[in-house]
Amino acid sequence: MTSTDDRKRVARQHIDLSWNKGRVALAEQLQSKDFLYKSSFMPGPLDGEGYREMVLKIRDAMPDLEVVVEECIAEDSHVFTWCTLIGSIHKPALGYPPSDRILSISAMAFWTFNSRGEVQEICTMFDMESFRAQLGLSNRAYAEKALP
Question: Using one digit for the tens of pLDDT, what is the confidence trace for 78-101?
């Protein structure tokens, strides 16, 4: 098994290759064959191919996207990252309209690694309500009901 420092390095490298550089083929080399991506803004899990397509669509819509890793913590076979995504939407993406506003979106991800040190699963939670507010969109009814 790889060390916790190795897993943190791989998570940071995966983020940089995928989101900051758009070099998804290189990021895929860090993933297991049964890789899964789960996210608060996706209706269901994505396999490696689905993840690649999603990243490329988002990067196409947000060419100035930069993902800054704020915190990276590892324990056993897991890594936790807290990131800030910064950029503007130039083309419609994931049902959201273009905007000339520079957006700042907080995201937290829980990474699971297999015994070979490959990324097996990423489960990401985005602060979608803040994202929607920055775009000037109203809160979703479900989120309003979920609040105390």
Answer: 999 999 999 999 998 877 888 888
Domains identified in the chain, total number:
1
Residues 6+ apart with CB under 8 A from 55: 18, 19, 22, 24
**The pTM is what?**
0.88
| pLDDT, tens digit (0-9, with 9 covering 90-100), for 104-139 | 999 999 999 999 999 999 999 988 888 878 888 776
- Residue 32, domain extent: 2-133
Sheet strands (E) in the chain: 31-39, 66-75, 78-87, 103-113, 119-126
* 84 domain residue, yes or no: yes
Q: Using a CB cutoff of 8 Å and minimum separation of 24, what contacts does 124-129 make?
A: 124/37, 124/38, 124/39, 124/40, 125/39, 125/40, 126/39, 126/40, 126/41, 128/40, 128/41
Domain annotation covers residue 143? no
Whether 139 maps to a domain, the answer reads: no
Domain harbouring 17, CATH code = 3.10.450.50
